[in-house]
Amino acid sequence: MTSGLLVMSYGTPERLEDVEPYYTPIRRGRPPPEARLHELIERYRAVGGPTALNRITRRQATALKATLADRGTAVRLYVGFKHVAPFVGEVVEAMAADGITHAVGLVLAPHYSLRSIVEYQAYAEEKRPQAMTLEIVSSWHNQPGFIAGLARRLRDALPRAGDSPHVVFTAHSLPAAVLDRGDPYPDQLRRTAQLVAEAVGLNDWSFAYQSAGRTDEPWLGPDILETIDELADRGERGVVVQSIGFVADHLEVLYDLDIEARELAERRGLAYARAMMQNDDPDFIGALATIVEDRLATVGLTG
Q1: Do residues 269 and 286 share a domain?
Q2: pLDDT by residue (tens digit) across 45-78?
Q3: pLDDT grade, residue 302 (50/70/90)?
Q4: How far apart are the C-alpha atoms of 113 and 237, rounded to whole Å?
Q5: Residue 258, CA distances (Å) to 39, 44, 96, 168, 230 in order
């Protein structure tokens, strides 16, 4: 029996003209105000235009399928996005039309959250027929291969920020209200950071959030820009940032970290480096393959 594999990610606009329709559903049906829309478009222009996230996701998925095949597990691959076509629900319908009866779903986000994994699950479940089982991996924030890959990239980045730089791990912020609902997201993030720090041998490190939305409600903090200011104030001479919540280069990495955070650090006299993202590197794909294999074994599916 060949199992289905649904790989899911956030998605990104392909053209500058798509920025407004892309962000409108993200903002719960409210188009971005004109000034905010202009700022978003300028951010994309600053990183060279719409990012390659969709293409990276497809490369990750294709490499994952190939790696699984090399290990003896055959899967029929599908890719769905949260905010651009093909949407997750549409892809689940296509899987059912293709006769897929058993599938594993993998969101390319390591940490469980009510605003992330749960939403992907809801989109998938809305379109899943009763005749199809879809087992979605809920979290892989502490998977050994994932941690080892992060540690390797962090070690590579440390010499690029001078002597004894301070390390700051980051992830996308969420509205602080998720804490009232018992969301495990912050705890899982700090567990990932702790495991990577231990693997690298760090005794002193920080965690900060990035890319908070611009709404009236409070968001999880501290923000990476606040943290950089604090590090400069206390006399640190260098900082290395590693975003542990993202697995590919896209706007929140290429602009928020490579431009905005770097400019602030350099303005405050700090040497700055950012650990590379995993993208479709073989070690990361190998870790994803193990995650999928483990899930298939857990639910009694074979390739």
Answers
A1: no
A2: 999 999 999 999 999 999 999 999 999 999 999 9
A3: low
A4: 34
A5: 17, 13, 41, 14, 19
Cα separation, 255 vs 259, in Å, equals 5
At residue 166, what are phi and psi to the nearest 5 degrees?
-85, 140
CATH of the domain at 128: 3.40.50.1400
Residue with tokens 């990932």: 192
Tens digit of each residue's pLDDT (9 = 90 or more) over 148-164: 999 999 999 999 999 99
CA atoms within 13 A on the CB side of 146: 23
pLDDT of residue 303: 44
First vs last C-alpha separation in the chain: 6
Do 213 and 173 share a structural domain? yes
pLDDT at residue 214, as a whole number: 84
Both 111 and 212 in a single domain?
Answer: no
Instruction: Give 28's pLDDT tier (boundaries 50, 70, 90).
Output: confident
Q: How far is CA 272 from CA 235, 237, 257, in A?
A: 14, 9, 10
Alpha helices in the chain (DSSP H): 19-26, 34-46, 53-70, 88-97, 117-127, 144-157, 185-200, 224-233, 251-254, 262-267, 282-298
Q: Tell me if the pTM is above 0.85.
A: yes
Q: What is the 3-state secondary structure (H, E, C) of 194-216?
A: HHHHHHHCCCCEEEEEECCCCCC
Is 63 in the same domain as 170?
A: no
Written as one string, the DSSP assignment of 30-65 is PPPPHHHHHHHHHHHHHTTSS-SHHHHHHHHHHHHH
Residues 104 and 4 sit within 8 Å (Cβ to Cβ): yes
Query: Number of folded domains in the chain?
Result: 2
Q: Domain containing 183: what range? A: 144-274
- Tell me: pLDDT of 143 over 80: yes
Question: What pLDDT score was predicted for residue 1?
Answer: 61
